[in-house]
Amino acid sequence: MYDLHIANKNYSSWSLRPWLLLRQLGLPFSEHMHPFGPGSNWQSFRTVSPTGKVPCLHADGEVVWDSLAIAEYLAERHPGVWPADAAARTWARCASAEMHSGFATLRVVCSMNCGVRIQLHEAERARIQADLNRLDELWCDGLARFGGPFLAGPDFTAVDAFFAPVAFRIQTYGLILSSQAMAYADHLLGLPATRQWNEEALKEPWREQEHEDWSLKHGRLLADLR
């Protein structure tokens, strides 16, 4: 049994990745929620994570921090984290690493907030276009190479978990990609586990003002579904 420490489902894109991976693989785990508070959460998160950040996985006396490290830890112990096919596995690792370290402008302009719908200002749409172009190219490349419906083939793997927060951003901010890429995002959002995350995010009683303000900094609020 794993213990996964996460932050608010409404805001925490990093937490979504290992949570969704564990759920999709059917691995048993206990979820430990640590809601964001005002200001720095470093000190409180340090009680479960050496970096003062979540997600963090506790397993068999080991503490595994960072979403990519968690994926690799699980891959050493369970099949299905990465594709079995060598070429697909290489591609999936490259794409996951690119997501882990890249798409900085998209992250800044379109912070994760499951419960709202926002119309971006035109200037902000222009700022993220290069990231959207690369995202579209990457998704379509994986789908074409490995036949879908997931990025690296017929089965959900870690690379899909790493891009799941982007699917939520597409939904929140009304982002437009090619038809193939949009169909993939819809497929991710339609998974039972992803729907569960979204439903639980909308039911959360917590509001963290810094996250709320940041979501509205770059666009106009259209709806609040919480």
What report would you give on this structure?
Helices cover 54% and strands 13% of the residues. The model has no long low-confidence stretch (mean pLDDT 97). It has 226 residues and is of the alpha+beta class.
Which strand order does the major sheet show?
2-1-3-4
N-C termini distance: 32 Å
Which value, in Å, is the CA radius of gyration? Answer: 17 Å
- Taking all residues together, what is the mean pLDDT? 97
Helix content percent band: 40-55%
Work out the helix count: 10
Largest sheet: 4 strands, mixed
Kindly state the number of beta strands.
Answer: 6
| Helix-and-strand structural type | alpha+beta
User: Can you tell me the overall shape?
Assistant: globular
Low-pLDDT stretches are none
Order of helices and strands, N to C? EHEHEEHHHEHHHHHE
Please report which band the strand proportion falls in: under 5%, 5-15%, 15-25%, 25-35%, 35-45% or over 45%: 5-15%
List the helices and strands and how they pair.
Blueprint lengths: L1 E5 L6 H13 L3 E5 L8 H4 L10 E4 L2 E4 L1 H9 L10 H16 L2 H6 L6 E5 L1 H25 L11 H16 L5 H11 L2 H12 L5 H9 L1 E6 L2
Parallel strand pairs: 1-2
Antiparallel strand pairs: 1-3, 3-4, 5-6
Helix pairs in contact: 1-3, 1-7, 4-6, 4-7, 7-8
Brief rundown of the structure:
The protein is 54% helix and 13% strand. The protein is an alpha+beta fold.
